[in-house]
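Input (structure):
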């Protein structure tokens, strides 16, 4: 096992000598004797076998090697400060890690804006972000796999705060046979075609929502894989409008007109699975998420499980 021969204090003194312009100035700032600083840097150079400082007259100058080591020394002292700050924050009840599960369909620019506001105040908290789909999102809530969950369906007994309205559109390649049909399409028309669906991340997936009656289905892990398959000319899929609008405008994908419904809408919700155990860092992140999304007046999802997201058909992955 590797054991360092130099000490953090030696690196701190070396950095101070350079930053404050000499041994005398560094000694005054660090409240140490100049001789102790000279000894610490000399021992550091001897241990490394590398000259870090070159004395010219009464001043010490960085060598080329010293410039490289100085940059690394700054990183080292910064990491040590962050470790001690993390320990202090944990002692004060600040979480070392916050887990957030995000329904794959949720618009990421809105979430990223929240993370931008959260990061400067996070005090070193590690974020664990996990993509979930359908049953997987519900499991993250019920089994308390995450501190914060953004979901399309609010399970019974939990409160959900609406965040973003999602519009799902049925689409295919412009040259696909479905796109060539002039009349509105029926369920029968779709049932004989290949449907691209997104994998449900739940341990026990339950096909309880969405149109899943195609004779043949291919399952992919995310929307970008689904789009890739569609662009190759294969199949159709229900995809979020905020992801495919540019492709529709460019004519690379075509929206299908259905007799029953050519668009489906639902809300994603912010759910706190265990509010009583939510720590200060997680609460800060919740506030950032709320502030980054457009305000929706009604908080939904009572003990009956009915909400905006569950009364509308959340068919966001079929």
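Output (sequence):
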């Amino acid at each position: 096992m590797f054991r360092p021969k130099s000490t953090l204090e030696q690196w701190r003194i070396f950095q101070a000598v350079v930053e404050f312009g000499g041994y005398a100035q560094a000694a005054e700032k660090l409240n140490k004797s100049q001789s102790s600083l000279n000894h610490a840097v000399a021992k550091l150079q001897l241990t490394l076998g590398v000259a870090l400082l070159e004395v010219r007259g009464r001043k010490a100058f960085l060598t080329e090697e010293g410039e490289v080591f100085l940059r690394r020394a700054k990183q080292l002292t910064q990491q040590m400060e962050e470790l001690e700050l993390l320990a202090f924050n944990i002692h004060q009840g600040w979480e070392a890690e916050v887990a957030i599960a995000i329904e794959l369909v949720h618009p990421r620019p809105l979430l990223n804006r929240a993370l931008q506001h959260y990061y400067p105040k996070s005090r070193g908290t590690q974020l664990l972000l996990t993509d979930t789909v359908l049953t997987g999102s519900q499991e993250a809530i019920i089994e308390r796999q995450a501190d914060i969950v953004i979901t399309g369906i609010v399970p019974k007994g939990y409160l959900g705060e609406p965040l973003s309205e999602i519009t799902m559109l049925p689409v295919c390649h412009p040259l696909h046979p479905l796109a060539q049909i002039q009349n509105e399409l029926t369920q029968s028309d779709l049932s004989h075609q290949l449907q691209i669906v997104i994998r449900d991340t739940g341990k026990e997936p339950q096909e309880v929502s969405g149109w899943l009656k195609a004779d043949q289905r291919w399952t992919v892990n995310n929307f970008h894989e689904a789009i890739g398959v569609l662009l190759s000319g294969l199949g159709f899929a229900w995809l979020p409008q905020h992801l495919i609008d540019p492709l529709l405008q460019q004519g690379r994908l075509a929206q299908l007109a259905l007799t029953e419904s050519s668009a489906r809408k639902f809300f994603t919700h912010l759910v706190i699975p265990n509010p009583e155990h939510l720590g200060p860092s997680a609460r800060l992140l919740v506030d950032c998420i709320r502030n980054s999304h457009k305000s929706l007046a009604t908080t939904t999802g009572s003990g009956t499980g009915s909400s905006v997201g569950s009364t509308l058909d959340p068919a966001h992955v079929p």
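Notes: The longest helix spans residues 64-91. The chain has a mean pLDDT of 85.
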